[in-house]
């Protein structure tokens, strides 16, 4: 059995049998990893302990060998790109959720979505369903969007609410997570409403962005300052970004969502090739950029590509200088700042070969009422996205072909892509 098949079999048996029993006192059971559930399973099924521990060892070995198939110590000019398995295998994606997405600060939205008391939006990252809201006192909150009665999702989409009423049996929670009403529970014993509030998630902001941290124990909300989030999320790049127009002065004008038949990293790789594909794949865009001026700066968890722009609008927004900035924030968030615009791209894995990319467009407020200008700009952007989607889906099919395992980097332009792969390797490797 191939590595992928072994792990796929394990993953499916986990889904059917091995869900950890719920505990009112455990706040992060939804983020448990393979390594947590195998010992738990073995304890409850001693007759299977030997075979399950052998399977666990085989799975760990398979994971290790997939991760180590990429060697970040090889210099860029000689390096091979990660093997196809990184882009295809479901157990590799499970490892990425565990080690990458469920650790550290991860962008999930923008502050305008929760600007006023009672604003909320819901989302999903892997198997984590979350809801972010601003409570009646103006405090930003985040919870697992899961009813404590029988696990129904509580709410969907975005908007305003004064409380979360479960659509299934009507249990009702405050925007501070407290269980306000448990319907028709007369006769229930050993039940304390105070122990059945929504489970909290760490939430913070940096500039115009909302982030969650699914890894750390629940922190005191007062301790999650913008400064701390910025340092942990962006490291030494935070200053460069905030002084180059990535701030709260812009107004959100549009959101577009794309479902793409490719691994989430294929989209990121396409973003990180230093403009390499632009003259071939975006002929319209190439005429508006000085591709010779492309430069790439690398920080701890961020890479920034900069390029001179020939766009007309740029001239009237010279506080940014003439350069467009394309910042990639590890692992899956991209911030593009050019002229009066900022757009962000959030790549969310939906499966090993499928992702969703959410584009949010922000504009200088002086142009926010110019509908014709906005429409024209969004159409131009849409054309580029459609070209990129075709590229990404083509790459995914190539990655699944037996003809390909790994490739090479163009050293003068693809350094940010290598940086991304090296960061992933560091997150995934067993320590
Ligand atoms: S699942 Fe929410 S009230 Fe029953
Ligand atoms: Fe592109």
UniProtKB/TrEMBL annotation:
Record's catalysed reaction(s): choline + 2 reduced [2Fe-2S]-[ferredoxin] + O2 + 2 H(+) = betaine aldehyde hydrate + 2 oxidized [2Fe-2S]-[ferredoxin] + H2O
Gene3D superfamilies given in the database record: Naphthalene 1,2-dioxygenase Alpha Subunit, Chain A, domain 1 (3.90.380.10), Rieske [2Fe-2S] iron-sulphur domain (2.102.10.10)
Cofactor: Fe cation; [2Fe-2S] cluster
Record keywords: 2Fe-2S, Iron, Iron-sulfur, Metal-binding, Oxidoreductase, Transit peptide
Gene Ontology biological process terms from the UniProt entry: glycine betaine biosynthetic process from choline
Domain of life of the organism encoding this protein: Eukaryota
GO CC terms, sorted: chloroplast stroma
Family to which the UniProt record says this protein belongs: Belongs to the choline monooxygenase family.
Function: Catalyzes the first step of the osmoprotectant glycine betaine synthesis.
Protein name: Choline monooxygenase, chloroplastic
Lineage of origin: Eukaryota, Viridiplantae, Streptophyta, Embryophyta, Tracheophyta
Gene: LOC109726692
């Amino acid at each position: 059995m191939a590595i992928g098949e072994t792990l796929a079999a394990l993953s499916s048996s986990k889904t059917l049998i091995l869900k950890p029993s719920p505990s009112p006192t455990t706040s992060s059971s939804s983020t448990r990893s393979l390594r947590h559930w195998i010992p738990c399973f073995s304890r409850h099924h001693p007759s299977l302990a030997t075979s399950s521990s052998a399977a666990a060892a085989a799975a760990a070995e398979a994971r290790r060998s997939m991760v180590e198939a990429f060697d970040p110590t090889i210099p860029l000019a000689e390096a091979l790109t990660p093997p196809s398995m990184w882009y295809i295998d479901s157990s590799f994606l499970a490892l990425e959720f565990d080690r990458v997405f469920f650790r550290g600060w991860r962008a999930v939205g923008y502050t305008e979505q929760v600007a006023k008391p009672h604003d909320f939006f819901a989302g999903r990252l892997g198997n984590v369903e979350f809801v972010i809201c601003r409570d009646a006192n103006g405090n930003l909150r985040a919870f697992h969007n899961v009813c404590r009665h029988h696990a129904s999702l509580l709410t969907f989409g975005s908007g305003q609410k004064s409380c979360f009423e479960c659509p299934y049996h009507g249990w009702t929670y405050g925007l501070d997570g407290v269980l306000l009403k448990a319907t028709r529970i007369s006769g229930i014993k050993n039940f304390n409403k105070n122990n059945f509030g929504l489970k909290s998630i760490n939430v913070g902001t940096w500039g115009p962005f909302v982030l969650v941290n699914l890894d750390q124990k629940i922190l005191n909300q007062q301790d999650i300052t913008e400064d701390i989030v910025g340092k942990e999320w962006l490291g030494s790049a935070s200053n460069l970004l905030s002084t180059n127009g990535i701030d709260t002065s812009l107004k959100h004008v549009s959101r577009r969502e794309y479902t793409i038949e490719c691994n989430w990293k294929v989209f990121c790789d396409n973003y990180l090739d230093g403009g390499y594909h632009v003259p071939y794949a975006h002929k319209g865009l190439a005429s508006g950029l000085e591709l010779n001026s492309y430069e790439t700066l690398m920080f701890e968890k961020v890479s920034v590509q900069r390029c001179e722009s020939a766009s007309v609008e740029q001239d009237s927004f010279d506080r940014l200088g003439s350069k467009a900035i394309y910042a990639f924030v590890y692992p899956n968030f991209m911030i593009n700042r050019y002229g009066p615009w900022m757009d962000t791209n959030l790549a969310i894995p939906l499966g090993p070969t499928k992702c969703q990319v959410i584009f949010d467009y922000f504009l200088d407020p002086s142009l926010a009422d110019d509908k014709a200008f906005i429409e024209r700009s969004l159409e131009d952007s849409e054309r580029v996205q459609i070209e990129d989607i075709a590229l990404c889906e083509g790459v995914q099919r190539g990655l699944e072909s037996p003809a390909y395992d790994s490739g090479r980097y163009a050293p003068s332009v693809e350094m940010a892509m290598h940086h991304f792969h090296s960061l992933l390797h560091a997150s995934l490797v067993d320590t």
